[in-house]
């Protein structure tokens, strides 16, 4: 059994306690991937201390030089893409074509963040006074604690870590306990790229250890992607300990289909949006809202395609849908199906554990559709994070938008229509951070702002230049070259 280590201050080290946890493959519960450090307070303290020390010099390195290192990291991600994809699939289940795409997002983010190191622009502004110049600079924040989920084991951490480093911060990274090896490979890549000791640190463990990061007095910022419950708790602690905190939480994303849509395209979209990554994306399509005039036709077309999806081990060529992450998650999906049916939903396909052959070894659940779900029902409102699609009927275009907005989350959204007026009305009226027109709810691009409104987030956007609003603060500088005391308007106007 391979025993993995933490990466602290440029060294691969065992956890101080000597304790480990096992990670098993969701596609094959007899496949034990390895023993991973069950890190505790001493490991967290060591990593935070190293990151604080390294911050002193890393923040002084010219940003384009930091960019050079990130560009090399992008090259190494490219070189190791296939191999890393297989590591990720084995530990979290999605097919290799998806995990390679996940690595591609890290590659794109590495090159993007590297190029932005030449564009960390500030502003200059006219002064109220003669012989005086006003300007702003972006400055790094300090030590960033990064806590992420298992569903995008490389892409989502890279969205945070690479821009954080580009901006001159140092990082302590806690990946999910369900995807620790992906974190190990990321650390290897950053080490090989030449990130100096202490600038990036990896500490493996469970949620208990994540909590130690959030509580740590010498961490300045927490970047989190994960469940709403945990995100809200992190927000509370960060409020109390005065940390900057960016939260990326749940979604209940809807795709609307109007009668004038290209139905084949809409079906392709929902199949990918709802069952890609086995429905385990915060951007997954978990609600399909169909206009009443095409409800039966679209639902029927979708069902015929859904039952043909090929379930299996993501490492096997041809697999379209992998397992769910673990037994607890499978039971949760199954429980939501029961709730939805008790509340009057109609089971259209799936609705049970997938069995037979190799499927018996893992946590497989049939791609499931529950139709006729009205907006007052739990399945319409609560995030499930699995291959379970809720289908609902809208009376009109306006009704479909109201239904879309009838939910506590606001990450992604989609509408399929060829009516330009309705498309623009939807862009304006949908309450979500991201709206797709004639495209599924998933598939955000690395250089565009990513994040949600309402219960999904706390006002931040990763991706794009907006990510630097999370990982930098503004320094305002006034330069007075008048050689006399000039009082500002507060004292003089
Ligand atoms: C997530 O599920 O946490 O847009 C992020 C998408 C992906 C990212 C999903 N690029 O679906």
Compose a concise summary of this entry.
This protein is of the alpha/beta class. The chain has helices spanning 41-58, 63-79, 81-92, 96-116, 155-166, 180-193, 207-215, 228-241, 263-275, 295-306, 327-342, 378-381, 397-405, 420-429, 467-471, 489-492; strands at residues 6-8, 11-13, 20-25, 28-37, 124-126, 132-140, 143-147, 170-174, 200-202, 221-225, 244-248, 253-257, 285-291, 346-349, 368-371, 388-394, 409-410, 412-416, 434-437, 453-454, 472-480.
Work out the radius of gyration: 24 Å
Characterize the main sheet: 7 strands, mixed
The end-to-end span amounts to 74 Å
Give the CATH H-level superfamily of the largest domain. Aldehyde Dehydrogenase, Chain A, domain 1
Q: What would the CATH topology of the largest domain be?
A: Aldehyde Dehydrogenase, Chain A, domain 1
Shape: globular
> How much helix is in the residues?
25-40%
Number-wise, the strands total 21
**Name given to the CATH architecture of the largest domain:** 3-Layer(aba) Sandwich
Rounded mean pLDDT is: 97
Main structural class: alpha/beta
Q: Low-confidence parts, pLDDT < 50 over ≥5 residues?
A: none
Distinct small-molecule ligands in the complex: 2-aminohexanedioic acid
What number of domains? Answer: 2
Strand order of the largest sheet: 14-15-16-13-12-18-19
CATH classification class of the largest domain: Alpha Beta
